[in-house]
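Design a sequence for this backbone.
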């Protein structure tokens, strides 16, 4: 079996003390000549020395690892979120462990336990559990925590939140639809957790129609077969004489909505309007263009990572909720 190279081996081969090698590894070059730095670097490469995570934690009291848990790793939102997080953390020499909760409270808790065993320095979580009380273990251990996308409600000052401005964006979207003459708004959702980001979007649309003749109907496809959405759209459009617009409340639902419209031979924007929340502006390439309220998961990730770094540096810091504005991308339904 090949012998594990230790920091003592490096020090002996370089002709310096273990303390000097430790200072080199931690980037503390204040009292170290460039000749010594070069000598240590050469020996490290020659011996193929890699400091262990446990040894690094003993020196710095940090693992330099961040745990990230998302609700659905197959969603484009998750990959862009992770990209934004990594973009900020990488220059600070942090590694990021990504786990998928499958929108399951049990799976998420198992993931938290697994990452706690790795002694991560902090968490960024898209919650699949419902209240801050479900995260008491992290609060008790004083592990820095930032939640993203989904709102746990009232959280202590030590917990940060970064989300899209869902309520305001949806109310704006709804107001524009009403001004465009739509009198029936069909909201396509798929909610498996009560704190889904889709929930405040529904509230925002309902606030927009207050005092108007426009109606809002939520069609939640969770737990239903694929053809159920098609049947619901057919029924709602056939039984309404005014202008109808269909709004998918997240990007993946837009594919299902388009499939249903194709099956029903309903053309947009001629027969029905079509709009969607989305994570990236792909719809410009579909047909006549779909009206979007485009959120920015990459910026949510960047903001969450920056907030987490602040919390790690100063555990007593009071953290606030940051709302990342969604951007209207015009299509041809208005």
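Sequence:
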């Amino acid at each position: 079996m090949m012998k594990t190279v230790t920091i003592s081996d490096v020090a002996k081969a370089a002709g310096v003390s273990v303390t000097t090698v430790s200072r080199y590894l931690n980037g503390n070059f204040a009292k170290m000549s460039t000749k010594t730095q070069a000598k240590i670097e050469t020996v490290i490469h020659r011996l193929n020395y890699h400091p262990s995570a446990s040894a690094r934690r003993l020196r710095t009291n940090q693992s330099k690892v961040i745990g990230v848990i998302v609700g659905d790793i197959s969603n484009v939102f998750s990959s862009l979120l992770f990209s934004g997080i990594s973009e900020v953390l990488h220059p600070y020499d942090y590694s990021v462990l990504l786990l998928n909760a499958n929108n399951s409270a049990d799976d998420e808790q198992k993931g938290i336990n697994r990452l706690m065993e790795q002694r991560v320095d902090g968490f960024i979580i898209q919650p699949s559990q419902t209240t801050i009380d479900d995260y008491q273990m992290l609060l008790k251990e004083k592990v820095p925590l930032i939640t993203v996308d989904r709102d746990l409600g009232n959280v202590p000052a030590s917990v940060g939140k970064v989300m899209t401005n869902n309520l305001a964006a949806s109310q704006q979207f709804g107001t524009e639809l009403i001004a465009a003459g739509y009198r029936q708004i069909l909201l396509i959702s798929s909610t498996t957790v009560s704190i889904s980001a889709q929930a405040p979007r529904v509230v925002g649309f309902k606030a927009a129609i207050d005092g108007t003749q426009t109606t809002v109907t939520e069609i939640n496809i969770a737990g239903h077969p694929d053809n159920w959405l098609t049947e619901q759209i057919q029924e709602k459009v056939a039984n309404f004489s005014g202008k109808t617009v269909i709004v998918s409340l997240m990007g993946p639902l837009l594919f299902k909505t388009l499939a249903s419209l194709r099956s029903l031979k309903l053309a947009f924007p001629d027969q029905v309007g079509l709009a969607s929340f989305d994570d990236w502006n792909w719809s410009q390439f579909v047909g006549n263009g779909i009206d979007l309220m485009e959120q920015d998961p990459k910026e949510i990730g960047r903001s969450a990572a920056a907030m987490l770094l602040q919390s790690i540096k100063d555990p007593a810091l009071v953290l606030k909720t940051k709302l990342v504005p969604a951007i209207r991308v015009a299509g041809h339904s208005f």
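The longest strand covers residues 65-70.
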